[in-house]
Amino acid sequence: MKKTLAFFFQPRFLKFLLAGGVAAAANYGSRFIFNIWVSYEQAIVLAYLVGMVVAFILMRRHVFYRQSHHLGPQIFKFIIVNILAVSQTLLISIALVRWVFPAISMTYAPEAAAHLIGVLVPAMTSYFGHRFFTFR
């Protein structure tokens, strides 16, 4: 238990959470803008792309900066890790808004709440994917 707690207070993980938080805010906020022109599902994917660009820049610069400096392979690997993460975000967001929230009679801002939860869930899988695959 002590090792688990220590992991969550490592400087790299805390930087990852901060950078990820900024990227998640860009993702979450841009979804509302995209939703003006496209469907909820399309807006989630477009917003995720915004978050990915912000995340890559911040992660490469402030979290995993001591790692390899080969940009092309890092971008490719970053995209692979994020395909898994956007799939998680999309599936969770859609499942919540279509099935879970109606089942519990949640009617206040279901799309906003579902998307927020969907954005937060992939944090751990993304951290390990980027640490051990993208920026090694």
Fold blueprint:
Layout: H1 2-8, H2 11-34, H3 40-63, H4 71-103, H5 110-120, H6 123-134
Helix pairs in contact: 2-3, 2-5, 3-4, 4-5, 4-6
Residue share in helices? over 70%
DSSP, total strands: 0
Largest sheet, in brief, is: none
Q: Which segments are poorly predicted (pLDDT under 50) over 5 or more consecutive residues?
A: none
Percentage of residues in strands: under 5%
Average pLDDT over all residues: 88
N-to-C terminal Cα separation, in Å? 27 Å
Can you tell me the overall shape? globular
Order of helices and strands: HHHHHH
Number of H- or I-type helical stretches: 6
Rg, Å, rounded = 16 Å
Structural class: mainly alpha
3D architecture notes:
- By secondary structure, this protein is an all-alpha fold.
- The chain is built from six helices and no strands.
- Helix 2 runs antiparallel to helix 3 (40-63) and helix 3 packs across helix 4.
- The longest helix has 33 residues, at 71-103.
- The chain starts with a helix and ends with a helix.
- The relative contact order is 0.14.
- The model has no long low-confidence stretch (mean pLDDT 88).
